[in-house]
Amino acid sequence: MNFTGAHILSINQFQREDVDRVFAVADQMEPYALRKRVTRVLEGAILGNMFFEASTRTRVSFGSAFNLLGGEVRETAGFENSALVKGESLQDTARVLSGFSDVICMRHPEAGSVADFATASRVPVINGGDGANEHPTQALLDLYTIRKELADKGRSVDGMSIAMIGDLRHGRTVHSLGKLLSLYDEVHVVLISPAELALPESIIESMRSAGVEVTVSHEMTQSLADVDIVYSTRIQEERFSTKQEADLYRGKFRLNQAIYTEYCQPNTVIMHPLPRDSRADANELDIDLDDNPNLAIFRQTDNGLLVRMALFALVLDVADKVDEFSHEVHWYNSRQRPIKS
Ligand code: CP
């Protein structure tokens, strides 16, 4: 894959060597993400950060990643603050915004919308989540995290097993992650969901044809015993026609420390793309897991910064110049303190 000037819209674009390239550049970003050094390699560049659907970490992570490379960020958040509410087309919006920006990140509630937007954009577009379709940068940061967590345990992505739990029908992160895992060898994926919220059959078929062993289950606890990774997800309430329909599934698969202790291997890694729904009727990932050292959810978000910095550096063709435009940090650095639960 030639990253320079490329849109990043789907995991389908990636081969394994492309993923390796992203991860190698992400590794190089660590001193900058940890504020040990500052780089100005993207000085003068502007990111158009266009989020037409709710987001905390993806939006801020893209913006922070661009800032950490020395670039500036301009944002729109929500339809109500954009001219889309006046009937402007996505293509016209793309024509306009790509005149102001050097790269655009976009989230939109409709599947395929970011790709439509990209057709009219004069600059690279990165998909920050398009409806229930895909969330490719989340999958890359998830796999980057999985790779690091398993390496700490002397394991690799090849030969690993993962349980994906929850709303696998609407959860775009598991759609992208399932596709991404298909690039690896001897991977076993256990899909745990209510029957109505199963992973789309087309994705299961493509995973199986790529050699992934896929097991489908509607029961959680007994399926956790042999997996390296538990990847919990939220019921995607915003994709249901009514809240009452989403309520039928909320709270069906809850992981807490007692269940973890009884059913998981002692070193099983716990992941979640976040946000976790911490309301009492959902609580798919209990806060009593926060002191569990295998809880990787905040390492995922930290890793997201590295992966997104890497994608910007590759797409704007500065991956080999980041150190050249860098200098030391002179201010107090509080980044070394561990995350408090
Ligand atoms: N994981 C993720 O996409 O989170 P946000 O919705 O907060 O961006």
Indicate the overall shape.
globular
Extended strand count? 11
At the fold tier of CATH, the topology name of the largest domain is Rossmann fold
Q: Regions with pLDDT < 50 over 5+ consecutive residues?
A: none
- The CATH H-level superfamily of the largest domain is Aspartate/ornithine carbamoyltransferase
Could you tell me which ligands this complex binds, including any ions or cofactors?
Answer: phosphoric acid mono(formamide)ester
Q: H/E element string?
A: HHEEHEHEHEHEHEHEEHHEHE
Query: How much helicity do the residues have?
Result: 25-40%
Largest sheet: 5 strands, parallel
Order of strands in the sheet with the most strands?
A: 8-7-6-9-10
The CA-CA distance between the termini, in Å, is 39 Å
Structural class: alpha/beta
What Rg, in angstroms, do the CA atoms define? 20 Å
Give the integer mean of the pLDDT values.
96
> CATH architecture of the largest domain, please?
3-Layer(aba) Sandwich
Task: Provide the β-strand percentage band.
Answer: 15-25%
CATH C-level name of the largest domain: Alpha Beta
Number of helices: 11
Number of domains: 2
